[in-house]
Amino acid sequence: MDKYINKLTEQEKREFMLRAISLAENGRGRTAPNPCVGALITRKGEIVAESWHKRPGGKHAEVGAIEQARQNGVDLASCTLWVTLEPCNHLGKTPPCTRAILDAGIDHVIAGVRDPNQKVAGGGLDYLRKVGIKVEQGIAESECLDSIRDFMIWQQESRPYVYLKLASTLDGKIATRYKTPLAISCEQSWYRVHELRSRVQAVLVGGNTFYADDPGLTARTRQEVERQPWAVVVTSRLPSVDDNWKLLRRRPQETIFLTFAETKQENRKKALLDRGATVWELSETDAGMDIATALKRLYKEYNGYYLLCEGGGRLALSLFEQGLVDKFFYILNPRILGDEKGIDLFSGSRQTDLQNQNCLRIMNQEKVGEDLWLTLTSDS
User: What is this structure's pTM?
Assistant: First the structure.
């Protein structure tokens, strides 16, 4: 038993768990359908090994940390294991982590949160207690829950985890009054957005963005991307194949158009299908097109675990109103357009007061080049 643990303050314990959370983030976008998990091992208040879950079917974070500690010649019997998510106690593609912990001789485990999967929740921690291992739970719990929010969405709603990314000037504008796109974010932000694209299965834009920007919606990173994300366009007006749109010219087979079922566009729909594109017709809701149904289909038929929405403002607000924004990256550039008729960051609502369902919580703020990145989430 590492007696030093008893001398740690609650804040010091939080710091160790926050480090484990940062390790878990290394696997973001690569572990689906498994959650991102980070683990570290301490001895006398010092980190002696750390790891994270890297890919589905690969070793879990706890096992990786245990193996690293052994390679470093550490006596695990005098160590504490910190892990963001309750160790598994069932046989899946890998043996149960509880067995690895027991075999290693570790007698103290600190877990951030229990497994949200109701079929196995509590089983790992209960087993460890039963065999005499000291267990603590709930350190940095809210942060650990944030780190597995994607996994919870997959388990509970069977849809992709949705990122929303929007960039605006300091006065909240994303385009001029003539709907001319603005080159708002800096080069460093551009690279970060494309790295994010490389980790999702689909990129979503609205019709206004499609017609104004003619986007390619590919991930252009310094390293080769294994597979480009699906391009998904929400529009009430399907495009003509006779026009020279990038998506229809370069990768129609990777493009999905979402449109209203009631709209009579059979000729354009047939032409798009003949070109190789996909068209899904959806019903209308009070908040616009029923995008939730399309997301469930993306998840089920295309293994769409992550989706990135890049606007515009009407689509973004519709996603918020349908409860479909899980993490919002707001890129704020410290320039002022000053055009009162410029296109706003969000639009489409006739509300005259602040709505509780659109209230967000700031998770992180970071300066990227000349931009300020705010990461926000909704707790609803």
Answer: 0.91
